[in-house]
Amino acid sequence: MPDTASALGSPAGRREGPAKVTGAARYAAEHHPGGCAYAWPVPATVARGTVTAVDDTPALALPGVVGVLSHHNAPRLGEPEDATLAVLQDARVPHRGWYVALVVADTLETAREAAAAVRISYAEEPFEVELTADHPGGYVPQDTDGTSGEHLRGEADNAFAAAPVQVDAAYRVPPLHNHPMEPHAATAAWQDGRLTVHDSSQGSTTVRDTLAGLFDLPADRVTVVSEHVGGGFGSKGTPRPHVVLAAMAALVTGRPVKLALPRRQLPAVVGHRAPTLHRVRLGAEPDGTLLSVVHEVTAHTSRVKEFMETGAAATRIVYPSPHARTTHRVVPLDVPTPSWMRAPGEAPGMYALESAMDELAVTLGLDPVELRLRNDTDTEPDSGRPFSSRHLAECLREGARRFGWQERDPRPRARREGTVLTGTGVAAATYPVLVSPSRASARAHPDGGFEIRVNATDIGTGARTVLAQVAADALGVALDRVRIEIGDSDLPSAPLAGGSSGTASWGWAVHAASTRLAESLAERAGQPLPPEGLGVTVDTAGTADADSDYARHSFGAHFAEVGVDTVSGEVRVRRLLGVYAAGRILNPRTARSQFIGAMTMGLGMALTEGSTMDAAFGDFTESDLAAYHVPAHADVPAVEAYWIEEDDPHLNPMGSKGIGEIGIVGTAAAIGNAVHHATGVRYRELPLTPDRVLTGEG
Is 54 strand, coil or helix? Predict the structure, then answer.
């Protein structure tokens, strides 16, 4: 028998790696069906109003132009659940950048030229895009998912007013943009009433079902393929307008149509992290024990549909206190619709909470690590349920040991190297364990090989590899005997890659199918397999989504060292270190990549990434990678990621928790706290750009 002990938990290399580095992997816009045409969208140039005329004559006069779609001639769609997909259905313009036309041509260059030639006339209306904490249009959204709305415990406001030690601070996180390496793209083709789409998506099952509804088709008449996806960070979690436009254009022209959105247009049409205004009040005993926690978050949404950035949700999880109030308010404005971005809610929310905890530690004269340790808990504060596992204290202690925290001089501005002040900071992190039902099939072939089929999506996380490891482990065979098919809606249906839930959801189904297949093979011991092999299909509905008696979360601790140049105002992160408690780590190589990638994204959130909504123009000023600065290699120091092995039997058959997002949660706060330690100035608005640092504007 082969040695399979290391199939799960070993640092297996990515299965698709050679295809990606040699260019053999094909992304959504790299499929070239015969007769393919190219589309280019026309965005609205007003911030609110109505289209009064579409003059496409100059565009149609250009050689090679196939057609121009607008609300006058576009196919009528079914009513979508997501109103952002109702493109070219009427004359309204809810925000700048909303698509008002689509040009289709024989070449990409012609489509782009023709789009610029389309003349749109508007009846403009007054608009409003500025978010304020006291905006009269703000309201508390319904708490439909247990994370939004308002949660109360005890008498938080009265307890805060009576607390011996108080911190009352406001923090601001600007709009942030996902900007995946691969822009949103789709190649669509109709044949005999059947629609096939290659889409850059985090979940092709959802895209298939959505397109079927929009175009009044049975789901089995739609196939959506997302075999290779170049990142998404949440912005590809549900269908976006590009895939609907490509399918519409292909239907009208009778030709396959390819549409890759220009990067400058992404912030207006694929979602963004909404700006969040935070007020955090912490009341504590002189020894640091929390008495009251109040976290109020205000965010904007569009008038197209409601989306709440639930920044106070994590505050309900991390620290116990007899009294707490967490409140979300959302303000509808004439802005693009926000959506998910890596660790939605937790990333900005924990920046505010962990910055306030640092302020409390300074006020008390208490070590920031020790303050957090004194407020550890075995039960989830809001629900009272025991944690299935919680090793936040271990993460803090192990991180402090590895980082050399004990050598830290707590005094601000105590370390100077010429014009550079040096400081260190810490922050805690948490992210919920999420899981959804999934289907998967496993088949044994007469040649000794095994085939796993599940419509999982690999957005760069290494899902193919880890799922093959799950199967090999359950089957008791060598990893190279397992072949896996993912990324096609014709495969057994599966949930999207998001919420750090992919591996847990798909892996549960793969494990169940593989285990059942192994049992069937054992019953047939000594009998040859039929030519078609032996297969089983499972559905984890009713099991994976069953209620749990435990609160299930990942935890972590981030440590940062920064140097702040007092002449230029530049902040350079010299060291980032994270320690995580995230269940069983199924593949150390891919896990470390996820942790480090998220920490790097947190570094960008802290120092370079930020967007501005132009109040006069009604659009994001930083709309491409020339103006919106994501960290480059030169911005990222040696980043260290470690973990504590957890044996948690209350999760899933693999004992794993999600790891894709916890690395960004807390990183920005650790860096901000380090900047305060270096300079003695408390900055409460991100990003910490040189101009903000030099002026001392907190």
Answer: strand
pLDDT tens-place string over residues 47-100: 999 999 999 999 999 999 999 999 999 999 999 999 999 999 999 999 999 999
Residue 119, SS3? strand
Whole-number Cα distances in Å, 97 to 69, 262, 382: 16, 12, 41
Interatomic CA distance for residues 342 and 137, integer angstroms = 27
What is the DSSP-derived secondary structure letter of residue 23?
T
pLDDT at residue 690, as a whole number? 97
> Which H/E stretch holds residue 298?
strand 290-302
Q: Which of 16, 519, 661, 697 is catalytic?
A: 661
State the pLDDT at residue 52. Answer: 98
Spatial contact of 329 and 308, defined as CB atoms under 8 Å apart: no
Torsion sign, CA atoms 92, 96, 97, 101:
positive
Helix runs in 270-364, H state only: 315-318, 346-364
Q: Given the DSSP bridges, would you call strands 639-643 and 571-581 parallel, antiparallel or unpaired?
A: parallel
Residue whose tokens read 């409460």:
684
Q: What is the pLDDT of residue 1?
A: 39
For residues 161, 167, 170 and 173, what is the CA-based torsion angle, rounded to 10 degrees? -130
Instruction: Give the whole-angstrom CA distance, residue 37 versus residue 249.
Output: 9
Residue 596 DSSP symbol = H
pLDDT in tens, 530-562: 999 999 999 999 999 999 999 999 999 999 999
Compute the Cα dihedral for 147, 150, 153, 159 and give only its sign. positive
Q: Residues 6 or more apart from 225 whose CB is under 8 A from it?
A: 196, 197, 198, 199, 204, 487, 488, 489
Distances (CA, A) of 360 to 395, 508, 654: 21, 42, 39
Active site residue 661: yes
State residue 370's pLDDT score. Answer: 98
**Token pair for residue 76?**
């009528």
Mean pLDDT of the 303-324 span:
97
DSSP-derived letter for residue 322 is: S
pLDDT score recorded for residue 698: 59
**CB 236 within 8 Å of CB 459:** yes
Q: How confident is the model at residue 633 (pLDDT cuts 50, 70, 90)?
A: confident
Q: For residue range 149-185, list pLDDT tens digits in order.
A: 999 999 999 999 999 999 999 999 999 999 999 999 9
Q: Which residues is 198 bridged to in the sheet?
A: 187, 225
Euclidean distance between CA atoms 496 and 235, whole angstroms: 12
Token readout for 194 is 């059947």
Distance in angstroms (rounded) separating the CA atoms of residues 668 and 558: 9
Q: Which three-class secondary structure state does DSSP give residue 9?
A: coil
- Stated pTM of the model: 0.97
Distance CA 597, CA 603 (A): 10
Cβ distance 500 to 237 under 8 Å?
no
The one-character DSSP state at 245 is H
Enclosing H/E stretch for 468: helix 463-475
pLDDT in tens, 110-144: 999 999 999 999 999 999 999 999 999 999 999 88
Percent of the chain predicted with pLDDT > 90: 96
pLDDT at residue number 697: 65
Q: How many CA atoms lie within 13 A of 438 on its CB side?
A: 33
Sheet strands (E) in 522-645: 534-539, 553-565, 571-581, 613-614, 619-620, 639-643
Largest CA distance in the chain: 78
Pairing of the two strands 37-43 and 257-260: parallel
